[in-house]
């Protein structure tokens, strides 16, 4: 279920990496009625199959990521965006993605979150570091990974793995969408840096007004009881 940030990165990857057919999206269910996140429009006129573990909008075929029914090397491009955090066994899921992806140039694209709130759909199990993504994609011959946001706790993590070829000098951090998104996070105008977060000044001020009196009372009480 690709979010807007992820779709921007996908467009950039499509411009620089050949994504062979057939294209299969793993996690294609459009959970919310108002969502317009069907990726098949990016692959118009090409063989595209949307899969998820339950039926619904955007789903052509029901699949369990941990035990896919696709044959070895049957998928040209495997796309699994903003989905792995909802899978109970991401390492097994990625082993399956590596298995079903073509050995002669097949591509796998994955994305997920690290600094992000719990969200169901229907369950939310994991968060991922860039190095965690490298390990998940270790079944591929060449891999690139990038995080967006704070270097220590990125908000989003993206990865690409290929079989039977090299990604050459591809640097995901230099993709236009990644550069733009990182620039927004780095820009002090977007908010005050509080740990790995950028908090808008107004929101920070309201939080301080609401929370600071309680903090001061608690500290005074602690000193009196010491």
Written overview of the protein:
The termini are far apart. By secondary structure, the chain is an alpha/beta fold. The protein folds into two domains: 4-186, Vaccinia Virus protein VP39 (Rossmann fold, 3-Layer(aba) Sandwich); 192-225, no CATH class. The model has no long low-confidence stretch (mean pLDDT 92). The protein is 30% helix and 20% strand.
Q: Could you list some keywords that capture this structure?
A:
226 residues; alpha/beta; 2 domains; two-stranded antiparallel sheet
Number of domains: 2
CA radius of gyration is 20 Å
Give a count of the beta strands, DSSP E runs of length 2 or more: 9
State the end-to-end CA separation.
Answer: 53 Å
CATH superfamily of the largest domain: Vaccinia Virus protein VP39
> What fraction, in percent, of the residue positions are helical?
25-40%
The second-level CATH architecture of the largest domain is 3-Layer(aba) Sandwich
Name of the CATH first level of the largest domain: Alpha Beta
Summarize the biggest pleated sheet.
7 strands, mixed
Shape: elongated
Low-confidence stretches: none
Order of helices and strands: HEEEEHEHEEHEEH
| Spatial strand order of the main sheet | 3-2-1-4-5-7-6
Backbone structural class: alpha/beta
| Strand residues, percent | 15-25%
Describe the secondary-structure layout.
Layout: H1 4-16, E1 23-26, E2 48-52, E3 61-62, E4 77-81, H2 90-100, E5 107-113, H3 130-136, E6 142-149, E7 154-162, H4 176-186, E8 192-194, E9 197-199, H5 201-225
Parallel strand pairs: 1-2, 1-4, 2-3, 4-5
Antiparallel strand pairs: 5-7, 6-7, 8-9
Helix pairs in contact: 1-4
